[in-house]
């Protein structure tokens, strides 16, 4: 039930009949109140234009403007008040006309109290339902108005990201609904990326303020030149701008973007990269411009940020070339083992130059980055140490930056910091020089004790000493001036000549040479003789004393 009574206008030329209606019906109980009375159609029409009645009860036959003419005039002015006709004439033409005007009831005089009460109850219920529907519709409209900016953003995203399947007429109608102007000669998409936004500003509120400031500057610069701009947020550090131009001129748009960039750089001290797609005559083609702008942002990684990058056909296919990894692991490990920081810095520079010259994608650059991190880890581990806590985790401040590097220049700086402040520091901490000497001494002792074992080699020695084979090979050669294998061979052959010099001339010579080769770790006597001659210049049998 409506809290406020529904307002009624009674229209009848008979004063006593109007009074009768007031007396025989309990209007308040039924939820109505008699707001006004009129004695003819003309007077009633003036009242209806001024007041918003819920129900009009009208006689049909009145002097001047009849009830039917009155209601027809109401409907022509889109006044859709509920109507109950009351008349003394049971004429079919009247009833048909009443129905055509949307009258709720057609009642005959003398009026039946119960019949009118029932009619009023039905009209009241209809009014309640309609009011409830109107209220719900109003709430939906309010919700729609509140969400319209979000829906507009979604609409723009859809035709930026995808080729539209709807007709140009439907697209234009939807665009007008969201307030997008369509009287322009061409359209283009600009992606504005705030360089290193997440690195420079930790708080989301700060990032939002900078995005808003950049948007205002772009809006003012382009808008002052007659470019209509519609903005949407596509990524946390990006703004997409639908630029609508009165004249088709990519060059003009490029210059305006450059003006915005210079102002932001000089006045706000913020680096911003503009990626500008080509302009198209139809708004249904802007998804192509957006794709081009998005593609251009890939070049920011190798070419650097804080610039305007415009789409040209030469960009196409630049990343299709075969990419070769710019890292020689052996060269890097040698520099790391010898703690040559300048050499490592130069290797980093060369690798990054290669990334830029080949216009490598960000994904390839990340692969190169991880390869360098792997080399740094290997250099630490091969010295017998262990990786520091939080290595390669988000908990470490340096590693937390790994996946948000936006340019090759930033990647180069990160790698230089990584090797200078982490890898070389850990190498110095893990194994001091004296420990290297201890390892070499233990390796020599291992060879002395096990040279007669045919299975002794660098890998077995390293396993016995619990060190990396590559590291053992490196420090052994540095300490002893010869490789581990050369040292093992010399020990074996020196022992062999001592044994052979102890054999008498009447001994079984062939048997003794075989025995000696077995005693010093050679299972193949012919290979033993070859190594022996290479070192001493004679075959083993010639060394036996006569």
Automatic annotation (TrEMBL):
Tagged with keyword Amino-acid biosynthesis: no
Pfam families: GGDEF_2, HTH_18, Response_reg
Keywords: Cytoplasm, DNA-binding, Phosphoprotein, Transcription, Transcription regulation, Two-component regulatory system
Segments forming domain HTH araC/xylS-type: 441-546
Cell location: Cytoplasm
Superkingdom of origin: Bacteria
CDD domains assigned to the protein according to its UniProt record, in alphabetical order: REC_YesN-like (cd17536)
An example Gene Ontology molecular-function term: sequence-specific DNA binding
GO biological process: phosphorelay signal transduction system
All residue ranges annotated as the Response regulatory domain in the record: 7-124
Name by which UniProt lists this protein: Two-component system, response regulator YesN
Organism: Paenibacillus algorifonticola
């Amino acid at each position: 039930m409506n809290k406020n009574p529904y307002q009624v206008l009674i229209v009848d030329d008979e004063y006593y009949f109007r009074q009768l209606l007031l007396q025989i019906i309990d209007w308040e109980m039924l939820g109505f109140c008699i707001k006004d009375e009129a004695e003819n159609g003309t007077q009633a029409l003036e009242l209806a234009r001024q007041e918003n009645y819920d129900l009009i009860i009208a006689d049909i036959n009145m002097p001047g403007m009849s009830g039917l003419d009155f209601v027809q005039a109401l409907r022509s002015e889109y006044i859709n008040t509920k109507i109950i006709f009351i008349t003394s004439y049971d004429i079919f033409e009247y009833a048909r006309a009443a129905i055509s005007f949307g009258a709720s009831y057609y009642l005959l005089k003398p009026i039946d109290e119960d019949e009118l009460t029932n009619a009023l109850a039905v009209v009241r219920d209809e009014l309640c339902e309609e009011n409830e529907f109107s209220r719900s519709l109003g709430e939906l409209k309010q919700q729609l108005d509140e969400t319209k900016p979000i829906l507009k953003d979604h609409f723009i995203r859809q035709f930026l990201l995808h080729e539209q399947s709807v007709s140009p007429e439907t697209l234009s109608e939807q665009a007008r609904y969201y307030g997008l102007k369509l009287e322009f000669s061409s359209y283009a998409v600009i992606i504005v990326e705030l360089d290193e936004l997440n690195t420079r500003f930790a708080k989301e509120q700060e990032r939002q303020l900078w995005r808003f400031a950049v948007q205002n500057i772009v809006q003012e610069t382009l808008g002052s030149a007659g470019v209509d701009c519609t903005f949407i947020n596509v990524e946390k550090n990006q703004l997409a701008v639908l630029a609508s131009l009165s004249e088709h001129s990519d060059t003009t748009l490029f210059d305006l973007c450059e003006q915005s960039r210079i102002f932001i750089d000089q006045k706000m001290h913020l680096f911003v990269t503009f990626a500008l797609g080509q302009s198209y005559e139809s708004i249904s083609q802007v998804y192509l411009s957006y794709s081009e702008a998005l593609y251009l942002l890939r070049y920011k990684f190798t070419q650097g940020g804080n610039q305007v990058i415009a789409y040209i056909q030469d960009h196409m296919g630049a990343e299709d070339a075969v990419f070769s990894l710019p890292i020689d692991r052996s060269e890097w490990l040698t520099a790391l083992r010898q703690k040559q920081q300048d050499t490592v810095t130069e290797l980093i520079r060369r690798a990054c130059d290669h990334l830029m010259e080949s216009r490598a994608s960000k994904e390839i650059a990340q692969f190169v980055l991880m390869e360098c991190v792997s080399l740094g880890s290997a250099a630490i581990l091969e010295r017998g140490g262990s990786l520091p806590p939080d290595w390669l985790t988000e908990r470490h401040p340096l590693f937390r930056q790994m996946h948000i590097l936006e340019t090759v220049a930033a990647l180069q700086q990160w790698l230089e910091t990584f090797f200078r402040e982490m890898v070389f520091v850990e190498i110095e901490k893990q194994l001091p020089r004296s420990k290297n000497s201890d390892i070499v001494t233990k390796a020599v002792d291992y060879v002395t004790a096990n040279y007669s074992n045919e299975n002794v080699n660098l890998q077995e020695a390293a396993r016995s000493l619990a060190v990396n084979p590559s590291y053992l090979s490196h420090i052994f050669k540095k300490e002893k001036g010869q490789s581990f294998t050369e040292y093992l061979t010399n020990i074996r052959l020196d022992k062999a000549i001592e044994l052979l010099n102890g054999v008498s001339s009447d001994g079984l010579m062939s048997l003794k040479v075989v025995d000696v080769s077995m005693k010093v770790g050679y299972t193949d006597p012919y290979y033993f003789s070859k190594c022996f001659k290479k070192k001493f210049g004679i075959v083993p049998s010639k060394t036996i004393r006569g």
